[in-house]
Fold each of these.
Amino acid sequence: MLLSAAVLRKSNNMSKVITFSRVFPAYHPRAGQRTYFVEKFLKANNINWFKDYYFPMLCQNNPKLKASDCSDFIQSFNDGIREKKVHTIRNGNRWKVGDKFSPRVWSGNPYQSKQIVFAPDTEIKQIFDFEIANNEIYINGQSSSFENLDVAINDGLDYKDLLAWFKFPKPFKGQIICWSDAVSYGCR
C-alpha cells in the first residue's frame, strides 16, 4: 500500500481528488510521451518534492512507506522542468473557489493502480468556465484566440497540445480550476 488509510484521511480531509496524467492519452498525437504535469504543478507551487514533501510527509509520517513503493514515480521525476502548471481543466461544474483538492497520480496504469498523493491539499483560488463550441474556445463566455492562448500555457501545454487534448473542435464544457491568484483572462 502506498499510503495508509490514516495518512490519506489526514491529507484528504474534506478534499476532492484531482488525478494528473503523467503521459499524453492514447488519442493524442504525443501519445505516451510525458506531460510533466506533476513537476509543473510543483514548480508553480514552489514545492521541492524530495525536500519539502516526499521525505518529510511520506517517509517520516509513515514509516511503513518505502521509496521502492513509489519507484516508477521517483525514477520518472524530472527536476529540470521550468514550466509551470497553475490550473487544470475538468469537465462538468462541480468545483468552486475555496474548495481544496488532493493532487495525485496513478502509481501505474490509470484506474488499475494505487494513487500517489504528490503534494499537500491545495486550495482553489479561481474558477473560470471553459467551453469548446462552434469551432471556438470560450472562457467565461468570451471567445479566446488560439495562437495567444494563455490558458494552454497556464495548463502546462502549448496551444496545439491543448486543442488535441480536448479533441478540438469536438464540443466540451467544463471548468478551469486555478490554484493561483495571478491568472487573469480578463473575463470575470
Amino acid sequence: MRQIARSEQDTEELGARLARARRAVREFAVLFLTGELGAGKTTLVRGFLRAQGISAAVRSPTYTLVELYRCADFSVLHADLFRLRDPGELDALGLREWAQNGYLWLIEWPERGHGHLPPPDLTLSFHVLSDAHAIDIQTHSTLGERWLGNLPPPESSR
C-alpha cells in the first residue's frame, strides 16, 4: 500500500492513523522505518505518539539510540540505528528485555541492526519525490495484515 504525504502534517497524520488502527495494543509488534535522511521517519513517529497521548518532545534518538515512551496500555521503544557501526552493538543496549507483549518497537534504519532485531510486522519505506513523500507500507505477519486492514483512510479522502 502506498500513501502520499505532501506535508509534514500529512506524515504525522499517517502516524496517528497507524496508532488508531492498532487494535491488539498489548501484543508485541515491530515496525521498521526505512528511507533516506529527512524522508519523514521521525515525523511519522511523532504523529503516532501524539495519537497515543504523548505530549513530550519527540525527536530522533540519533545520539541516545533509544527512547522509551509509556503510553496508556503499552510502551513504545523508538530506536534510530543510523549511528551503529556494527549490528552487534545492539546487544549492549539490552533491547531483549523489551521484546515482549506490552511493547511496540518503531525502528529507524533497521538495516543497520540486521540479524539482531526481531522480524517486523510492518515495514514503512519512505521515498522523497519532487513534490511529496511516498510511504510504502508492507506487511510481514498476520498481526501486520490485521493492523494494515484496520488503517482508516486519510482525513482528506473522507
Amino acid sequence: MQKRSSTQPRAEPRWPAIVALVALAALYLSLPERLTPGPSWVVPAAIAVLLVPLIAARRAQSHTIYFALGILLNVIITVAVIWSLAILIAGLPDKRENPTELLRSAVALWFSNVLVFACWYWRLDAGGPLRRELRGAHTKGAFLFPQMTFPPDSPLAELGWRPGFVDYLFLAFNTSTAFSPTDVPVLSRWAKLLMMIQSGVSLGSIAILAARAINIL
C-alpha cells in the first residue's frame, strides 16, 4: 500500500470557523432589540442563511463563491457590531439601559468583536483558507507567525505548517486585549487598518465597562 506523503497539504478543519459563526449568532441574539438594526433575529438569520451555501462552496472547492460569500457575511456582522456599539454608547448619557443590560451588552459586543475580526484575518490572509490549503507551507502572508521564522533544520520547525482559525483567533484576542498583535508582526496595510478598527471597537466596549464600574464605586 502506498503511504501518504508527509508533504501533502492537509485540509484545515472547518469546525472552528463554523463554531465562531454560531457563537456570533448567539451573542447577537442576546442583545436587546433596541441595539440591533431591526429585529434581534435579523443578523443571526443572515448568518444561518449564508452559512449553508458557504459550506457547500467550501466542499466544492469553489474559491470565488466561497470567498465572496465569506466577505459578505463578515461585512454584515461587522457593520452590525459597530452599529450596536454606537447605539449603546449614544444611550449612555440618557441612561437608556439598566446596569445589568448595559454590562451584558458590552461584554457580548466585545466577544463579537474578537470573533468577527478573527474571521476577517482568517478569510483574507494569503488568499484565504482554500488558497492556503493548496500550498505546501505558509511562507508569506499579511502576518509573520513565529512558525514562519524557524529555519528548516530547527527542532521547532513543522513541515507544511499553515495557520488555522485558532491562530487568527489568538491574534484577534490579543488585539482586543493588549491593543497589539503581540508575537505576530503585521506586514500588510489592510491588516493594519482592520486591527485599528478592531482596537477601536474593543476600546469602546471596555470604556463602557470601565464607566459603569466607576459609577458603581
